[in-house]
Amino acid sequence: MTTAITVSGLEKHYGRTRALDGLDLSVRTGEVHGFLGPNGAGKTTTIRILLGLLRADAGTARLLDGDPWRDATSLHRRLAYVPGDVTLWPTLSGGEVIDLLGRLRGGIDPQRRAELLDRFDLDPRKRARTYSKGNRQKVGLVAALASDVELLVLDEPTSGLDPLMEETFRECIGEERRNGRTVLLSSHILAEVEALCDRVTIVRDGRTVESGTLAELRHLTRTSISAELSTAPTGLGELSGVHDLETDGTHVRCEVDTTALDGVLRHLSAAGVRNLTSQPPTLEELFLRHYEQDRSPSSGVRTGA
Amino acid sequence: MMTTLSGTGSLIRLILRRDRIRIPVWILAIAATVVSSVASFPGIYADADDRQARAALMNNPATVALSGPGHGLDNYTFGAMTANELGGFTAVAFALMSILLVVRHTRAEEESGRAELIRAAVVGRHAAMTATLTVGLGTNLLLGGILALGLVSSPAQLGLAGSLLFAASMTAVGVVFTGMAAVTAQLMEHSRAATGLAAALLGLAFALRAAGDIGTGTLSWLSPIGWAQATRAYVDGRWWPLLPALGLTVVLVITAYVLRTRRDEGAGLVRAGLGRAEASGWLAGPIALAFRLQRGVLIGWMVAFVLFGLFIGSMADQAAAFVAENEMARRYFSRLGGSAAATETLLATYMSLMAMVGTGYALQATLLLRSEEASGRLEPLLGGAPLSRLRWASSHLVATLAGSVLVLGGAGLGAGVVYAGTTGEVVDAAAVLAGALTHLPALWVLAGFAVTLFGLAPAAIGLVWAALAGVVFLGMFGPLLQLPEWVSDLSPFAHTPQLPGAEFTAGPIIVLVALATALVLAGLTGFRRRDVR
């Protein structure tokens, strides 16, 4: 298994502020990797180090088998980047910016460019100053997607896009994956990550707190169970792995550690199950667990390459 | 009416908060420069004979065009010296401060989108402009008051009435250009264009009074700076020439409000159309992009400098006529070589001055490196494209290098062609053009300093404007203040041979080019090693 991005123990300080505090990240070649975390967690700093814009204070970072700082120029021939807030030259038209960025990378496929402009419904003649936030974002996306590269680095690329365009973006990323491209996608839109990503890394306070496939991460969390039983259950509260138990006569609601699911289900069926709904944890719940400040950022398995 | 003004008070406080360093620095810098210059007069010009000797030097077209009409030359008191030699440039400083202040708080705010956030609160349509004009007026009055106080209490012991009138006339120029910038900020969609247009009008005001003061004096009455000098402060002072300044300010402010009412938030009255759907073939690399981004600024500077060159070239002829008629000037210049020397000296003086002003273009262009970085537009170029830092930065420098040749060359060619037309000698055009281009290495030294700051201390890059202000000050007032040679020599322009007229020597040129190269290399090395931020 080859990796496109390997980051370990990355540190970056801005004066006294500690932006990155030993961050790890591993992106396999050909996968779409979700990069999640609350605002200020260090996602953008990591990406800027990977692009050679910032120099790391400690730790190692490898990108497409190169050093992101030293080999920046040659690496950039093989990647495209869309920042979360695309800033453009106000007097240039969107079309000019797309062509300029494409030519800097060594040329742009005019047919692909036209197709993307059409799919994203973007008027390339308008001056960048008159574009709305969403339209500026589209300029960045078209410029990146129209280029023939191995790796796409996307930092909250869909901020400001309407739902229709968001859908178009998902289709495009799906096609990129089928074409074997690697994508690092930093995003806050969980549905987007859930739909697109093979694996995710969650960071907080400059550190990696979870990394793995969605299935692996789900394994670490609780499934919520709601059951209607024939008889009132007994001893359910004493089982390990059962949380937030509510019983109302024969009706039971509880959260169960995924590892303890088997024992709990045996216990329930002993009481006679009439009706049962179980809900796997949503990414939202996974996420919120890590976003909440008072929780300790431990309990992570690192399933790197 | 009142509802369109609601929130003005809070916005005034916001402006004062944001400019709490900037406004005091402007006020102190201008007042301290003028007052300390005046304070050194008694030491340099101890008695009346020294002053009259200085007055005799002031009576030639080159200095008249640069400073002022020369009221009180027959009894050249410290006061007359102050008004005549410092007045014109003090007025320009007041005007520049006002233009930058007004555009910064009106058009620049709208352009950045911050004004939208403010306008969505309980803030009237005219609140931002009213707050800006109030602060602009207040700043000018405060500066005027401090200036008058400083002049009265300086060792030159200038009279109270004269100092009040002098300070008031300078304030009047500042206030007129406060109004002028309020209008240009309505017309132009871009803050840079609004500043540029107002600065061009300031240049026009200076040129009109220069032409008027050399000629019959009529043209000076079309210029706010001319009005200020027509007050004859410290000579036989009169206040009425400030009335047209007051009148023009009222007209400008009313115009600005009317225009503001008629346009949309964020829009200018000069509207840009649709752009190209595809980039033209040449917009393919970083050098092309650098030229494209500088295009407007470069064209503006070139047009202005060609016009200035034409004006100076035509003035050279008048200067020759003046020397031929004026006994004292003829005696002065006969030592240097007659009326031909007079015109050559004038042309050389002006080429030197234009090179210093033209450095403003080179700095603007070089500072684009920093504004591209700070705005985030550099990120997709360096982060997402195979473009090295060195190649990106040197592309901007190549564009700046070429632009500086075009700007100074435009001035030299404009002046040279007109001058050659009057003398009938084609070679004279080449001589004047060469005179302009010899100043390029000195200009590059300052641009190189900007690159050094960009690479090593990007947050402090604004210092380079202070360096330019210092260089202009040394060039303009070094002789008046008889500064020690090592101080005057700090300016790179002090080492450039003054062509046409003087002997050309390659030595200083080579040293200046080497120094500029070293400064650029230091900056580029620093930029390669630091974070993009």
Q: Which strands sit side by side, in order, in the main sheet of chain A?
A: 5-6-7-3-8-9
CATH class call of the largest domain in chain A = Alpha Beta
CATH architecture classification of the largest domain in chain A: 3-Layer(aba) Sandwich
- Count of extended strands of chain B: 0
GO molecular function (chain A): ATP binding; ATP hydrolysis activity
Membrane topology (chain A): Peripheral membrane protein
Keywords (chain A): Antibiotic resistance, ATP-binding, Nucleotide-binding, Transport
Subcellular location (chain A): Cell membrane
Structure summarized in a few sentences:
The complex is a heterodimer of chains A (305) and B (533). Chain A is an alpha/beta fold and 305 residues long. Chain A folds into two domains: 3-212, Rossmann fold (3-Layer(aba) Sandwich); 222-280, Alpha-Beta Plaits (2-Layer Sandwich), CATH 3.30.70.
Describe it.
The complex is a heterodimer of chains A (305) and B (533). Chain A is of the alpha/beta class and 305 residues long. Helices cover 31% and strands 30% of the residues of chain A. Chain A is built from 10 helices and 13 strands. Chain A has helices at 43-50, 72-76, 94-104, 110-119, 133-145, 163-178, 190-196, 214-219, 261-270, 283-291, and strands at 3-14, 17-28, 32-36, 58-63, 79-82, 151-155, 182-186, 199-204, 207-213, 222-229, 242-248, 251-257, 273-279. In chain A, helix 3 (94-104) packs parallel to helix 5. Residues 294-305 of chain A have low confidence and may be disordered. Helices cover 76% and strands 0% of the residues of chain B. With 533 residues, chain B is mainly α. Chain B folds into 2 domains: 1-268, no CATH class; 284-533, no CATH class. Chain B contains 22 helices and no strands. Chain A binds chain B through residues 48, 51-55, 72-77, 79-83, 85-96, 98-101, 103-106, 124-127, 129, 140, 143-144, 153, and chain B through 189-190, 272, 274-279, 283-286, 289, 292-293, 296, 375-377, 379-389, 391, 529-533. Chain A: One of its GO terms (biological process) is response to antibiotic.
